[in-house]
Write a structure and sequence with these properties.
- The chain is α/β, with parallel strands linked by helices.
- The chain folds into 2 domains: about 5-265, HUPs (Rossmann fold); about 270-395, Anticodon-binding domain of a subclass of class I aminoacyl-tRNA synthetases (Four Helix Bundle (Hemerythrin (Met), subunit A)), CATH 1.20.120.640.
- The chain has helices at about 40-55, 70-80, 85-100, 120-130, 165-170, 210-220, 235-250, 285-290, 295-305, 315-330, 350-360, 365-380, 385-395, and strands at about 5, 10-15, 20-25, 60-65, 135, 145-150, 185-190, 205, 225-230, 260-265, 270, 275, 310-315.
- Strand 11 and strand 12 form a beta hairpin.
- Helix 4 packs across helix 6 (about 210-220), helix 11 runs antiparallel to helix 12 and helix 12 (about 365-380) packs antiparallel against helix 13.
- The longest helix has 19 residues, at about 40-55.
- It is globular.
């Protein structure tokens, strides 16, 4: 049975799906106002690997990855470009699809857009207000905003391990805030001039970011599902707020329903051991990197690090990845192999590969098995061993082979 490191439990746990043989997985996707960067590439590739391996393990996987197509940054960029929000988001959705395809990423089964689920968000916000977990903004100037009252949710902070007291100590109190508590977060934003808006019981407005994922995941996967994934940067506040919203909205007689059984977070991308950011001038889009390196090399570079560890980008590391991948393919070159035969998981190397992948998707150990097999191919020129390399590499799409 696979084991997954569950961020919520802070330990590896045996994966037991809610419905035997089926996996429901939601991953936070991109906000489409610009080209995707290396951080996005890691999310795409990591959870593509996860879904592929679970399918190879016999599970029927439903993989949902959302698209945020309404957001402050989107509105600002569209205004700067003198184009409509629809034109901007469609252009960058197409660019995202092109980039992910080059990286060998299979499209998720479902890709909901936030703007398609406004009704679901309004229903959830209404339920939160009725149950005492949210409130319309106080005061005339704040009319139209709705906030989540974090103090009303007993489990707030359980994913991030942060207490409300610690969070408040580090939070600046907003001037002229219409919040009851500085930590309360927005569920619905009142419309501003020349911004897109939707009708609501609180006036025209648009949703806050966090409520979008709660509504979309519920619509497609239900009140409770197996796996929720995303980058480590989303653990707080985004995923923490998703839990607060979803579990409170579905509470009954004071008891909450657990939203997600296993939370997965991939590590940060760093550049020459510094956090990647535009302000530091070390910000790389997928397209920029693919101008210099083959997409297969970039995918290999991402997956040969464990998904939870930091990924340090540099030309040297990409060059090393290229050399390593070349060694693997060189071992297979010139051998005519039948690689369509089912894998015998009792075979020793196959069993070692499976054990690595079942241990929280330990791709570095899985690659070690592939390279040991490649060394054996170099010595023996065995077509059977070469075929095993190809078949194993394809199970989680570690290599195209």
């Amino acid at each position: 049975m696979p084991k997954i490191y569950n961020t919520l439990a802070r330990e590896k746990q045996v994966f037991t799906p809610i419905v035997a043989g089926k996996v429901s997985m939601y991953v936070c996707g991109m906000t489409v106002y610009d080209y995707c960067h290396l951080g996005h590439a890691r999310v795409m590739v990591v959870f593509d690997m996860v879904s592929r391996w679970l399918r190879a393990s016999g599970y029927d996987v439903t993989y949902v990855r959302n698209i945020t197509d309404i957001d402050d940054k989107i509105i600002k960029r569209a205004n700067e470009n003198n184009e409509t929000i629809g034109q901007l988001t469609q252009r960058f959705i197409q660019a995202m699809d092109e980039d992910s395809a080059k990286l060998g990423v299979i499209r998720p089964d479902i890709e909901p857009k936030a703007t398609e689920f406004i009704d679901g968000m309004l229903s959830m916000i209404t339920a939160l207000i009725e149950k005492g977990f949210a409130y319309p903004a106080q005061g005339k100037d704040g009319h139209g905003d709705v906030f989540y009252a974090v103090n009303s949710f007993e489990g707030y902070g359980k994913l991030s391990g942060k207490s409300l007291e610690d969070l408040r100590a580090g939070e600046r109190v907003e001037v002229d805030s219409h919040k009851k508590d500085a930590m309360d977060f927005v569920l619905w934003k009142a419309a501003k001039p020349n911004e897109p808006s939707w009708d609501s019981p609180w006036g025209k407005g648009r949703p806050g970011w966090h409520i979008e994922c709660s509504a979309m995941s519920e619509h497609h996967l239900g009140h409770q599902f197996d796996i929720h994934g995303g980058g480590q940067d989303l653990q707080f506040p985004h995923h923490e707020n998703e839990i607060a919203q979803s579990e409170a909205a579905h509470s009954h007689d004071g008891k909450t329903c657990q939203m997600v059984n296993y939370w997965m977070h991939n590590g940060f991308v760093r550049v020459d051991d510094e956090k990647m950011s535009k302000s530091l001038g070390n910000f790389f889009t997928i397209r920029t990197v693919l101008e210099k390196y083959d997409a297969e090399v970039v995918r290999f570079f991402i997956l040969r690090a464990h998904y939870r560890s930091p990924l340090n980008y540099s030309d040297q590391h990409l060059d090393d990845a290229k050399l390593a991948l070349t060694r693997l393919y060189t071992a297979l070159r010139g051998l005519s192999v039948d690689d369509d035969i089912a894998i015998d998981w009792q075979q020793s190397q196959a069993a070692s590969f499976k054990a690595a992948m079942d241990d929280d998707f330990n791709t570095p150990e899985a690659f070690a098995v592939l390279f040991d097999l490649a060394n054996e191919v170099n010595k023996t020129k065995s077509a059977e061993t070469a075929a095993l390399v190809k078949r194993l590499g394809r199970t989680g799409r570690l290599v195209a082979a």
